[in-house]
Amino acid sequence: MTPQPLDEVIGEIAADPDAAQTPGAWRPRNESPSDAFGIAGDYNRWQLARLYGGRSARVARGARLDRGRVSESWTLISPYPSADLGTLHPGTMRLILKLAP
Fold first, then answer.
1. Closest to 65 in 3D by CA, of 20, 14, 13
2. Residue 100: pLDDT over 80
3. Which pTM does this prediction carry?
4. How many CB atoms lie within 10 A of CB 35?
5. Half-sphere CA count of 74, side-chain side, radius 13 A
């Protein structure tokens, strides 16, 4: 998590030579909370939906490369919920999936 707004985080990523620059990567879009966080997570979906209160989350997705191969898949979400799903924070949550070499 970072207090930085999503657009600032994306700006830093754009300057990173290891960030994949494929079409659509790192482009923010509005998504429902269930689309942003997915259905596989172990969280209360109703509480998350209630927390966002009909608002969308801004989400950007992309990958990082290591020697030309995808090594990480990133999802950036803003605003993001507290761990107890009690409050929304104005910064950006970074969900990073590290892929096996």
1. 20
2. no
3. 0.90
4. 13
5. 25
Strands (E) in the chain, as ranges, are 29-31, 57-66, 69-78, 80-81, 88-89, 93-98
- Residue 69 CA, chain-centre distance (Å), reads 21
pLDDT above 90 coverage of the chain, percent: 83
Is residue 80 within 8 Å of residue 89, measured between CB atoms?
A: yes
The one-character DSSP state at 93 is E
Residue 78 exposure: Cα atoms within 13 Å on the Cβ side: 19
User: Torsion angle of alpha carbons 13, 98, 82, 52, nearest 10°?
Assistant: 70
